């Protein structure tokens, strides 16, 4: 007991000294889950030089490939308050970097939730980031590559088509937008290619992660919401809550009844009604919640402008007021009994 | 002063309680550095459905692309002993995951060096992991995809060609090998595609990282060594030491004189002389050190079998005795005055 008090005193010292509060972890690490082995045959052997000046070596493309695995990185706090781990699943064309430091260098949601006492798992979906991707011999389609224009116009930073300009001074902004626009080009460094043909593999990776580390709470963003609801439908007993930040989209509601015991929160930013794509997505998202409620489940929505939080883009975890939104989500999780206050 | 003592008492409590020592960070986070903008034009606009059941949207491939940036993640310890940050650069076909938890779930070098008081930066080279990659319209060549056979036979786990078998029980092993072979398939989940045409971009990313966070100490592995020596030649005043784990290779020595004030350690595992490729690489590596010494510089080699540490593969940061090798490297860094003991 004495030592516990000593630790509290040390924490107080840190606060008194005015330093940013340190992060105390009981452990951290990473792993890959899931995936499958694919055998290729009949391809020609190549001679390649792997490093300039190095020797020639054979590259035989025939053989066994490990593909469709998923990477996850975990941070376990020394004094947990969350009752379960919190899994952060990013959106399309992005990686787990979404939840880390914001593009303009502020604290991101990973560390905000760690500081609130949550054990956090940040993953890269199959095909993205440290999960790697399979060859065109295995995945038959080519990936998409996003221009800088695409997220500016689609993530409700600028007012749709024509709002992006190469010159930052000439970019049109939705009025009052909270995205740190001076760091927009830095944000686009987070974008990675994506495929349109890999959904089954991506979902299998997420289910493998759930099987390894859950029971848990899911936090999903955008396309991650589609996979989050599918993974929860497959493993409803392992998902203790879902925080779906602007699901794009929640997908078909035919299996939503499986989530009747899973509290769900959907969070929406500003300008939804000005963007036909977001009007369509949010309609699907709310219909999914209606189906959960019809089955006896519990589903809440935070429509940020309606509670006085204005100007949020699709990338609200990076917006200037990201801490304010993290607080709203945290309060909801406490209300649901999933974390000590 | 009282509170500092309190913290020491709290740490002692943790040790007495027998728990794994927690990790105390003053900060952590991530960022992308470097890269360039590429403009594409004249490509057809496509109609795509980004999410099953979602609306159709336009994908216009024309426009500005952010490419060739590099991702880095940092962990800053609360009580640093290292005089500079330690940058960990992975090898070819891999990502920063190399230095994290080993494939069989033991602690990796990132956390071992953090616990020794080093601020650590782990990056993904341009084109790998969370750094993303550019489209075939920008990078003209296709990436390489590695089979499971390739690292088994090339990383000195098995005795070269013919030693890999799909059946783990039938895989031939170099006698006494320290690689955790039961986790070999898990290790292959860390492999990501690589290009043979992107060296200039990869190096530019590393130099951008050096410019952002150094002075520093570089720890490089395999292909990362090639880039480490080139980055140090470009910024010799910013690199305070290089620990090059099996560089593959050090590359041409014509600019090695630039490193005459940079202490260098090369570390080699076992079985080098049994593998023609490693004979060739190590010859280049040692010639580079000779050139550094000829210019008045300081260069050391730890040939692990010669100091009684046997059985190490190319992936020695994952080998069963990875802690023993980390200790040898750590001692060298202390000897060079780069860290308190």
Compact description:
Two copies of one chain form a homodimer. The first copy, chain A, has helices at 2-16, 109-115, 149-154, 184-188, 199-213, 223-234, 276-294, 322-335; strands at 23-40, 46-49, 56-59, 63-77, 86-89, 120-124, 216-221, 239-245, 264-268, 299-303.
How would you explain this protein's 3D organization?
- Two copies of one chain form a homodimer.
- The first copy, chain A, is an alpha/beta fold.
- In chain A, 27% of the residues lie in helices and 21% in strands.
- In chain A, helix 5 (199-213) packs across helix 6.
- The longest helix of chain A has 19 residues, at 276-294.
- The first copy, chain A, is globular.
- The interface between A and B is large, with 97 and 98 residues.
The top-level CATH class of chain A is: Alpha Beta
Please work out how many helical segments of chain A DSSP would assign: 8
CATH superfamily of chain A: Alpha/Beta hydrolase fold, catalytic domain
**In which range does the helix fraction of chain A lie?**
25-40%
Q: Multimeric state of these chains?
A: homodimer
Gross morphology of chain A:
globular
Q: How much beta of chain A, percentage-wise?
A: 15-25%
Q: What number of domains of chain A?
A: 1
Query: Got a strand count of chain A?
Result: 10
Strand order of the largest sheet of chain A: 1-4-6-5-7-8-9-10
Largest interface: A-B, 97 and 98 residues
Largest sheet of chain A: 8 strands, mixed
Low-pLDDT runs of chain A: 1-18
Q: Pairing-aware structural class of the strands and helices of chain A?
A: alpha/beta
- State Rg of chain A: 22 Å
Integer average pLDDT of chain A: 93
User: What letter string, H or E per element, gives the SSE order of chain A?
Assistant: HEEEEEHEHHHEHEEHEH
Architecture of chain A, according to CATH? 3-Layer(aba) Sandwich
């Amino acid at each position: 007991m004495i030592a516990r008090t000593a630790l509290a005193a040390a924490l107080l010292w840190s606060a008194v000294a005015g330093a940013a509060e340190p992060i105390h972890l009981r452990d951290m690490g990473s792993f890959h889950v899931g995936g499958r082995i694919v055998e290729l045959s009949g391809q020609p052997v190549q001679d390649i030089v792997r490093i300039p000046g190095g020797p020639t070596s054979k590259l035989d493309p025939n053989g066994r490939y490990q593909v469709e695995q998923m990477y996850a990185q975990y941070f376990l706090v020394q004094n947990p308050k969350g009752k379960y781990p919190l899994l952060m699943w990013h959106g399309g064309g992005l990686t787990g970097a979404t939840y880390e430091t914001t593009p303009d260098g502020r604290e991101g949601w990973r560390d905000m939730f760690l500081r609130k006492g949550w054990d956090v798992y940040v993953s890269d979906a199959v095909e993205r980031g440290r999960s790697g991707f399979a060859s065109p011999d295995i995945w038959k389609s080519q990936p998409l590559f996003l221009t800088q224009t695409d997220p500016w116009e689609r993530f409700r930073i600028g007012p749709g088509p024509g709002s992006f300009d190469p010159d930052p001074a000439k970019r049109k902004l939705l009025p009052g937008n909270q995205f740190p626009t001076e760091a927009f080009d830095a944000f686009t460094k987070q974008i990675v290619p994506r495929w349109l043909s890999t959904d089954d593999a991506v979902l299998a990776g997420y289910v493998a992660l759930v099987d390894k580390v859950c029971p848990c709470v899911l936090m999903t963003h955008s396309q991650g919401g589609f996979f989050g609801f599918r993974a929860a439908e497959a493993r409803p007993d392992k998902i203790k809550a879902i925080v779906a930040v602007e699901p794009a989209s929640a997908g078909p509601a035919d299996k939503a009844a499986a989530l009747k015991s899973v509290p769900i929160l959907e969070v929406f930013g500003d300008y939804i009604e000005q963007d036909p794509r977001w009007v369509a997505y949010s309609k699907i998202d709310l219909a999914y919640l209606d189906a959960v409620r019809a089955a006896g489940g519990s589903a809440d929505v935070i429509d940020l402008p309606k509670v006085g939080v204005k100007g949020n883009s699709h990338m609200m975890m990076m917006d200037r007021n990201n801490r304010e939104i993290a607080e709203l989500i945290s309060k909801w999780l406490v209300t649901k009994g999933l974390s000590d206050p």
